[in-house]
DNA sequence: CCTCCCTGTGAACAATTTTTCTTTAATGTA
DNA sequence: TACATTAAAGAAAAATTGTTCACAGGGAGG
């Protein structure tokens, strides 16, 4: 039941082997045993290398044809929410795999749509993590990645800071991070943090981004924001009682997309929600049944240009 | 031992199912049994659909990291043969899979390097067939594909005409074909064919292409040119005796890349070899041990700008 | 109305892949 | 040196995938 796994203990650092094995297995169609002979290593090691290659996004799967129904949903979404583009992928059969599927599509989208010189303001979430993971490692000139969120003190693997860094590394971008925790202990501290010159500088850079990539979080209990302990369960209940349906950039919002009046929202160290409108292109990457409410809220009060989601969410959003 | 297979008998026309199944299997990582439950079809059918999806290039595998040694070979090739670009992939473990591997790389290259407005002059070969098969089906505006070779009367699956058509369809290009057999029965007939207005028109279009994509053939007996019967075994022997090391655009050439003086070369209905220099970018897609000699010959006497090959061939070409 | 193919399907079996658990080796620590 | 602790490799079992074969409709032609 561990929803958020730590980084796999065993990593194979040898990119050479991973690439070679992947070629033989996926492209040539050899059996793992055969590959073990060729590479002169144990059969099981081949298997482990291939697993690592998949997990790390060294091999990527691209599905050429899209599903008819998804294309129809894309059109409807564009029309309904005034999007410039929409991407809808089939829903994951296992609920918990939604981030995987949507992340995959997001990676493909970003690979095609990030251009030299772009400045990307980055949010946070499991879906985004998957997307970044699958992003091809190809440098794009003069790009910049700016994190819109502070970092977590614990919880390495799923961390705004970590994600931004990984993204930047993949595309050879400069990387700017908010050197503060995502939630300060108390509102006054937040204000102190945010007024720091270095923080203001990063926020300023984010404001000048031309692409914002973000996700929304729900209250389902496998949501990372709930799963990690940095928001107390009691606070989560209070937020829900106050009408919150989820969070965007770690700000909790109600069904109309407005920031809920609660102390937690005064402790968050992040790019200000209302300033998202300063960024020309906003890409919202989220999906799955349980995100429908938040997504609707986010779409209501945030100018989203591109929506990357799955069938379930698309249908949910369209069924008023 | 059937080297050149006919098109698989069983095709699944339902692109919807293929795409859905592929998503669940490759992206979400479900088991085939699970997918069968979801889609409400038998497990075995899922398996067959997935096979079809792979064969038809509906799912594609992309390997992100390249192999260090291959990168080094690419550099050496560029320098040695004055190429503007080189792509080297790991060699297939099973000799006969070389076209698969190289074709895969060629597809990736073409997908990234064909731009709107391009006119592509196309050669022929098993490797090219695989490349075309894996090409993503994405329209590229105002493109044109021109076949540089006549067609075969039999042998549907591996046919210059067929290949050109498939290529054109994939990228939404206009398609021009040479409406003559690749080898006329007698030289005078060839001249008659080639002087036809319609033929001249296509050749003219090819001459104005900006990209030529071609392959070379060797005398190994699984080579399509030998395998199909349109060159008699006795003629093949004569050609070899006359110093031919293989063919390029169905012209047989000697080790220096010059057209061998033999009747067969006077019967070929194809774009003239020496006119390749009129096309700014020439991409040579070939590899495998047995192609080294022809490739060297082709490189010696044809201005090749991009070479897509495998480790074996790369090493062979560099080891003088 | 009855064959004869032809196609699609599933069952049974074989091969491969994946997981789990054990063993081995390696490294650091008292 | 002995003792942990951890990482890597392997063997065996379990699960999944791939192949083969036989059978059930369902037209087309007799």
TrEMBL record, chains A, B:
Q: Which keywords annotate this record?
A: DNA-binding, Transcription, Transcription regulation
Q: Name one Pfam family in it.
A: Sugar-bind
**Signal sequence annotation:** none
Which InterPro entries is this protein grouped with?
A: NagB/RpiA_transferase-like, SorC_transcr_regulators, Sugar-bd_dom_put, WH-like_DNA-bd_sf
Q: Which residues form the Sugar-binding domain?
A: 67-319
Is the keyword Flavoprotein in the record? no
Superkingdom field:
Bacteria
Question: What family is reported?
Answer: Belongs to the SorC transcriptional regulatory family.
Name of the molecule in the record? Sugar-binding transcriptional regulator
Species for this entry: Mesorhizobium album
């Amino acid at each position: 039941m561990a929803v958020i796994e730590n980084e796999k203990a065993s990593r194979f650092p040898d990119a050479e082997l991973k690439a070679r094995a992947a070629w033989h297995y996926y492209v040539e169609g050899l059996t793992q045993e055969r590959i073990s002979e060729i590479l002169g290593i144990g059969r099981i090691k081949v298997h482990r290398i291939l697993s690592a290659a998949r997990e790390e996004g060294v091999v990527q799967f691209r599905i050429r044809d899209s599903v008819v129904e998804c294309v129809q949903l894309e059109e409807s979404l564009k029309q309904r929410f005034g999007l410039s583009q929409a991407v809808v992928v089939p829903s994951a059969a296992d609920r918990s795999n939604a981030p995987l599927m949507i992340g995959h599509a997001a990676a493909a989208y970003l690979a095609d749509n990030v251009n030299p010189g772009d400045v990307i303001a980055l949010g946070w979430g499991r879906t985004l993590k998957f997307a970044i993971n699958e992003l091809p490692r190809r440098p794009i000139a003069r790009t910049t990645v700016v994190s819109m969120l502070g970092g977590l003190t614990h919880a390495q693997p799923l961390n705004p800071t970590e994600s931004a860094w990984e993204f930047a590394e993949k595309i050879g971008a400069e990387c700017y991070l908010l050197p503060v925790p995502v939630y300060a202990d108390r509102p006054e501290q937040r204000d102190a943090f945010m007024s720091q010159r270095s923080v203001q500088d990063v926020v300023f850079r984010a404001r000048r981004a031309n692409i914002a990539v973000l996700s929304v979080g729900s209250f389902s209990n496998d949501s990372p924001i709930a799963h990690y302990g940095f928001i107390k369960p009691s606070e989560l209940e209070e937020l829900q009682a106050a009408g919150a349906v989820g969070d965007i950039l770690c700000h909790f919002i109600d069904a109309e997309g407005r920031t809920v009046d609660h102390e937690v929202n005064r402790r968050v160290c992040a790019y200000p929600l209302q300033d998202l409108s300063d960024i020309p292109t906003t890409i919202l990457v989220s999906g799955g049944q349980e995100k429908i409410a938040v997504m609707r809220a986010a779409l209501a009060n945030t100018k989203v240009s591109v929506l990357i989601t799955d069938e379930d969410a698309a249908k949910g959003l369209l069924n008023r």
